[in-house]
Amino acid sequence: MADRTSRLGVRKKEKTPETKVNEEKDKEKAKEKAVKNPDKHSKTQENTPEPQKTDEKKTNGESEGAAGAAANNSEDNGEFQPIELPPFEIVTGERMSPFYFKFQFRNVEYSSGRNKTFLCFRVDSAGGSVEPLKGYMEDEHATAHAEEAFFQQVLPNPSMEYDVTWYVSSSPCAACAVKLANILQQRKKLRLSVFCSRLFEWEEPEIVEGLKALVQAGCKLRMMKPIDFLHVWEMYVEQEGETFTPWEDCQENYEYYVEKLTDILK
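Above: the chain's sequence. Below: its structure in token form.
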């Protein structure tokens, strides 16, 4: 107890009159500063969270930028949302362009880039009492092929007697060959002659069987000679003042395909 009293006594003795005066002056200065800058402390408190907002904006900006970059990268990588293809369409007309004819009908062995069928047709009625029907078709988006679409759009009536002649850029696929064979079996008054520029995948067993079935059903299946190409040019191509001379290897390729077709139909 004496110890505590002595300590308090010592502290009281240290506060001299000069010390008190100095303390009062310090208090007055502090009050004057508070009066001159009353909002300084509050502004400091208000401004303190701002760096956090900036950080938030920066973070959000970074995430948005990352999302945009990811979207751009997905487009660069070819990852797009699925799109719906146009509906299946059969293009028809009286004459095709010279470019299509020269490219699609060329009787080359390997038909790279020729991924659709061009079909030129002539329909003669029995007795020749009606003007022949002529035109061409080309298929798109393989929902159905030009061979099948011909009987849906050009010649839908099964009861009449017709002589039909086709000049096609490629022989029918296996599925079309079977469908054509069935049509010929059902339509006894229909006679079909098909002249092909090329044989489509003629080494495939199902193609061989399909072409055999087509011929057995009564179709006359032939390869196009150089004179047939000239006939198609004159009757089914917009010549635009051009003349057509068969390709240098046209006869040679014709003989090549005739040999292959003969082997198929043995």
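The radius of gyration is 46 Å.
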